[in-house]
Each structure stands twice: as structure tokens, then as C-alpha cells.
């Protein structure tokens, strides 16, 4: 057979045009099928999945160029009182091409301890549905160790976004796994139990009529409140949709029509003591999509209080004292919820239950230091009124005074001249964590 004659054989114009028309029709048909058929969608996504698994992920975690030339910690106010504690830093390490957790000693700017868990081994224990795709989205290059929680014995509670909750020891060895998809914050209650946002998958509705048959998202984000014991036992699990329906708040589940992420629960903050306005064991919830802070009482399944705004798309709610809470306000455009308005910045708002008023004492500090993370972010107010902030989208930690004077800042920059993501860090007081830190300093792990 003469292949050259076959390859260079003349083709009639009508056949050529018919082939093009057929190809266009087939492309449209397959694209429509991909939206409706999970099998077709999987076929269409094969190239993207392979790229995600095998490619270098640095670009996904890069947030900017390091124009300041600062790498790590830079001390500005040299008062020793500002550097007696520690930071638990969760960050993407571009030099290692993975997420790590480190304890930074502010006093001498040294790394006390590092956790580098075996992500491949962790994923091998999971039986989560393949639709969640841990191999693609949470392999060692893509796993984000979100808001790690340090225990008194040096153990660490970790998870990525939509991945199992894991306890690892000081040497990063796995102690237990809760094989459900978890995300965002991780906090302890007064009894030592762990509260984490979760996802009910596959989603189940009770009292809500929602059509998910034509969804083109991977899955519906049905947020749950999850209470986990120190032994990895699930003690409480309840859907936010159920909570809203059972508290006659169904109208707030889909206020703007059906959405595949109606709440976006990003923080669960347990109350550690009683006050006139809440009880020990109550939970403050931050719901980004509703721009709402909710006070929920698990003991009787009651929503005690809720306020929408003036914060928008906020993250991180903290209890300051018996009458006040602080809210990290991303301050996004109220219409798009995607961009901070010109000449604006993030802010930490304080709501006073007694006065029923909202205050913004750090507004000028945020503006002065151009803190503008569109997503995520957190803050913590100290007893001297200084404030610790994670500008997550710009890979920066900063402590500053009310008038915006910078005490110190930390930039997650790499040797390549770029800045990379932070993953919700924590401030650790020496008075509370000294014994834990001393133990970690002497811990020797076998390779």
C-alpha cells in the first residue's frame, strides 16, 4: 500500500466542509454531554487531571513577586516584649514544593520544629469517593495544611481543603484519621474536643427542594459542624441546612436562588466560658456567602443570635471578652464579593453585644499597611491592643499597633524571588506553650 498516495490524495471540497460541520456538531454535543454525564466529564478532564497530578504546582501557590526583598521575619520595633512568643506557621515551601508547618521562635528568629507529613501515605488510608480526587487535588504538591492545631503533647491536627482530618505526632507519623471531607478552621472547645467545618457527601436534604441534576460543579457544598474527640471519634455532626430549616431560617439557605455553596462556613469558634450573651459550649459561626455571624447552641439545636454585615465575605470570628467579638472583615464589594473596593482594605470589626454597635479601631492601620486579602485571612487582638494579622493572599504575617505602626512582619518568600501562600497560622504564647515547645526542641525523629 502506498501511504504517500493516501496521505496526499485530493479531497473534494464538499467532503472537507462536511467533515468540519460534523466536527463542530460533535464538539457541541460532547460539551453538552460533559455537563450532564459524569462519564463524559471524566473523559474530558483527563488532560487537566494528568497535568494537575504531574506538573510543578509552584505557580498555583505563588501570590506575587518579593519586591521588599524580605525573606521570613523582619523585626521593626526592637522591644524584647514583642518577641517572647512563637508563631505556628503553615505555609507553602517553594524550595521543597510542598506545604510544611513550622514553629518560629520570635526571640531569636529560629525554627524550633518542623512537620512534613507523608501525604501519599495519608491519602492511601482514605476511602473517600473518587469524585473528591485526593490523588489529584491533595497530593504532596497540592496539599494545603490548613489551620493546623498544636496539642500539648506535640501532636498536630491537620487537613487540607475537602480532605480527611488527621492527627500526626511530633515526628509527623499518623496517629488517627477521620475519613470525611473537612475544610477551613480547626478549634478546641472547653472540653478539649475539636470543632471543624465538614462537608456532607453525597449531599442529603431534609426540608429543602433543590435541583442538583444539572450541576456543573464537582459537588454541592453542604456544610456540616463536626465535633471530634481527642481519639478521633465523631461526637457531633449536623448539616447547616438542617440547622437553618429547624430554626425557621430556611429562607436564608438560598436567598439569591440556588447556589452550590450557599453558606461557605469558614470558622467555628467555641465559647470557652459563660457570659450574659452566650453559654460555654455555644458556637460562633462565620458564613462567608451570607456575610453572617451566627451564634448556635448545639445542646438544644437553637440559633441564639445572627447578624449579617456590616462585614462582607468575612473570615475568622474571635471572642474578645464577655461582651465583644472580633470579626476579620474581608470587606469585599457587596455586589460582586470578589474584589475589595478602591481605596479600601480589610479590617477587624468589633461587635459589642451590650451596646449593639460595631467598631473599627484598626481601620487606619489596615489602610496604612495595605492589607487587602480578598479571600481567607485572620486576626488576633492582644491585651496591649496590638493586632496580629495574616494577609493570606499576599503571603504575609504582620503585627501592628492601632495607629498602624508595624512591630514585625513575616514574608513567605523563597529564594526564587517570589512570595507563596500561607495557610492560616497561629500565635502561640510562651506562657501557655513553653512545655510543648521544650519537648519539641528535644524531639529527635528518625528519617
3D architecture notes:
The structure is a single chain. This protein has 447 residues and is α+β, with helices and mostly antiparallel strands. It has a single domain, classed as TolB, C-terminal domain (Neuraminidase), CATH 2.120.10. Helix content is 19%, strand content 31%. It is built from ten helices and 27 strands. The longest helix is centred in the N-terminal third of the chain and has 24 residues, at 13-36. The termini are far apart. Mean pLDDT is 88; it is low at 38-51.
Unreliable sequence segments: 38-51
Integer tally of domains: 1
Give me the number of helical elements: 10
Distance between the termini: 61 Å
Strand order, sheet with most strands: 2-25-24-23-22
Specify the biggest β-sheet.
Answer: 5 strands, antiparallel
Proportion of residues in β-strands: 25-35%
Radius of gyration: 25 Å
CATH architecture group name: 6 Propeller
Mean of residue pLDDT values: 88
The helix content, as a percent range, equals: 10-25%
Compile the SSE list and pairings.
Layout: H1 3-7, H2 13-36, H3 38-44, H4 46-54, H5 58-61, E1 62-65, E2 72-75, E3 86-93, E4 98-105, E5 110-115, H6 119-124, H7 134-137, E6 149-150, E7 156-158, E8 163-168, E9 174-182, E10 187-188, E11 194-199, E12 223-228, E13 234-239, H8 240-246, E14 265-270, E15 283-287, E16 292-297, E17 302-308, E18 315-319, E19 324-329, E20 347-352, E21 357-359, H9 363-368, E22 378-381, E23 387-391, E24 396-400, E25 406-411, E26 418-420, E27 426-428, H10 430-442
Antiparallel strand pairs: 1-26, 2-25, 3-4, 3-27, 4-5, 6-7, 7-8, 8-9, 10-11, 11-12, 12-13, 14-15, 15-16, 16-17, 18-19, 19-20, 20-21, 22-23, 23-24, 24-25
Helix pairs in contact: 2-3
Amino acid at each position: 500500500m502506498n501511504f504517500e498516495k493516501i496521505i496526499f490524495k485530493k479531497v473534494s471540497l464538499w467532503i472537507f466542509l462536511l467533515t468540519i460541520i460534523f466536527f463542530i456538531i460533535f464538539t457541541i454535543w460532547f460539551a453538552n454531554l460533559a455537563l450532564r454525564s459524569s462519564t463524559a466529564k471524566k473523559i474530558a478532564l483527563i488532560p487537566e487531571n494528568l497535568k494537575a497530578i504531574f506538573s510543578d504546582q509552584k505557580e498555583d501557590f505563588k501570590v506575587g513577586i518579593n519586591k521588599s526583598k524580605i525573606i521570613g521575619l523582619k523585626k521593626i520595633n526592637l522591644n524584647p516584649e514583642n518577641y517572647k512568643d512563637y508563631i505556628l506557621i503553615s505555609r507553602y515551601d517553594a524550595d521543597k514544593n510542598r506545604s510544611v508547618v513550622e514553629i518560629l521562635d520570635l526571640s531569636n528568629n529560629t525554627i524550633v520544629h518542623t512537620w512534613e507529613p507523608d501525604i501519599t501515605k495519608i491519602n492511601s488510608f482514605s476511602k473517600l469517593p473518587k469524585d473528591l480526587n485526593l490523588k489529584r487535588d491533595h497530593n504532596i504538591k497540592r496539599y494545603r495544611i490548613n489551620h493546623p492545631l498544636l496539642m500539648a503533647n506535640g501532636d498536630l491536627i491537620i487537613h487540607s481543603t475537602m480532605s480527611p482530618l488527621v492527627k500526626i505526632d511530633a515526628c509527623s507519623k499518623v496517629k488517627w484519621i477521620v475519613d470525611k471531607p473537612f475544610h477551613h478552621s480547626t478549634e478546641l472547645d472547653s472540653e478539649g474536643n475539636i470543632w471543624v467545618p465538614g462537608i456532607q457527601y453525597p449531599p442529603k436534604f431534609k426540608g429543602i427542594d433543590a435541583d442538583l441534576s444539572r450541576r456543573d460543579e464537582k459537588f454541592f457544598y453542604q456544610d456540616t459542624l463536626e465535633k471530634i474527640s481527642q481519639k478521633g471519634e465523631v461526637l457531633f455532626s449536623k448539616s447547616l441546612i438542617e440547622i437553618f430549616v429547624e430554626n425557621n431560617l430556611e429562607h436564608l439557605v438560598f436567598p439569591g436562588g440556588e447556589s452550590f455553596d450557599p453558606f461557605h462556613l469558614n470558622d467555628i469558634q467555641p465559647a470557652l466560658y459563660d457570659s450574659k450573651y452566650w453559654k460555654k459550649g455555644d458556637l460562633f459561626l462565620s458564613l462567608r456567602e451570607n456575610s453572617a455571624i451566627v451564634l448556635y447552641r448545639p445542646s438544644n439545636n437553637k440559633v441564639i443570635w445572627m447578624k449579617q454585615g456590616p462585614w462582607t465575605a468575612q473570615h475568622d470570628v474571635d471572642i474578645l471578652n464577655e461582651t465583644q467579638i472580633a470579626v476579620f472583615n474581608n470587606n469585599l464589594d457587596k455586589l460582586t464579593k470578589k474584589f475589595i473596593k478602591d481605596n479600601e482594605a480589610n479590617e477587624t470589626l468589633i461587635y459589642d453585644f451590650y451596646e449593639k454597635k460595631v467598631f473599627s479601631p484598626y481601620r487606619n492601620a489596615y489602610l496604612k499597611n495595605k492589607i487587602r486579602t480578598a479571600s481567607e485571612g485572620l486576626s488576633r487582638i492582644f491585651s496591649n491592643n496590638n493586632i496580629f494579622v495574616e494577609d493570606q493572599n499576599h503571603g504575609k504575617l504582620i503585627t501592628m499597633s492601632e495607629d498602624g505602626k508595624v512591630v514585625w512582619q513575616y514574608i513567605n518568600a523563597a529564594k526564587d524571588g517570589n512570595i507563596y501562600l500561607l495557610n492560616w497560622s497561629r500565635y502561640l504564647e510562651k506562657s501557655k506553650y513553653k512545655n510543648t515547645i521544650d519537648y519539641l526542641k528535644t524531639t529527635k525523629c528518625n528519617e
